[in-house]
What does this fold into?
Amino acid sequence: MTRCAASCAGWITRGSGRGTTWSRTPGARKKRRIRRQIRALPRRSVVLAEDETDLLLFPPLRAGWSKRGEAARVWLSGRNARRVIFGAMNLRTGARVLVPRERGRSADFQAYLGEIRSAYRGWHVALLLDEDPCHTAKASLRAAEGMTLMWLPKRAPQLNPMEPLWGEGKAVISANKQYAGIQEQVDRFLGHLRGLSNQEALHKSGIFSKNFWLRGALSKAFCGSA
It folds into this structure.
C-alpha cells in the first residue's frame, strides 16, 4: 500500500522503514462503527441524517458588481436577525422533517427530537449526527433515549447528507438576496427544500452516488417506507 493510498483509505503510519506499521485514523474507525450500528438495527428501523443550519438576515455575498475602479457598496445595520433550521432526512426514502427555531440550543434540539418521534411513531429511530454541544448535552441524551445515536467523525461535515441540501437552499434562496425580514427568508428557504421531491433530495444529497460512504450498509432492507 502506498503512503497516498493509505492516507485516502483512512490509515496512518507509525515508525519508518521496516518498523512502519499502519493503523486506522479515528475518523475511519468511527465510520466503521456507524456501518456496524446500521447493520445491527432491528428490522423496523429508520436511519435519519440530522443537522442544523443558520439563516441570517444579512445574505451571504457570493457575487456582486461595481464600476471599474470603484469599490462596491455593501449596506449593513446593527442588527442581524438569525434563525436555526433543524432538519433530518430519511436516508432510504428522502422524506424530510424541517423545523425552524429561534435558537440552536440543547432545549431546541430536544424539542426537535419530539418532532422526530411524532413523525416516526412506531419506528426505531437511528440518528446520524455530529457531536455539537446541543446534541451531547446530558438533557439531550436523555431526550434521545430509545434512539440509536451514530456520531460522525469530528470536522467531517461532508459525511452528513444534509449538508448539500443546506447548500442548495442557501444558493437558491439566501445568497445575494436581502429580505425585508428574517421570517420571509425562512419561509422561502423551507418552501424550497420542502418542494423538492424525495428522489430529488436523495439525488442532491449524494446518496445515489456509487461512492456514498453508507451505500453498502443501507442496502439492508430494514428501512421500509416510513
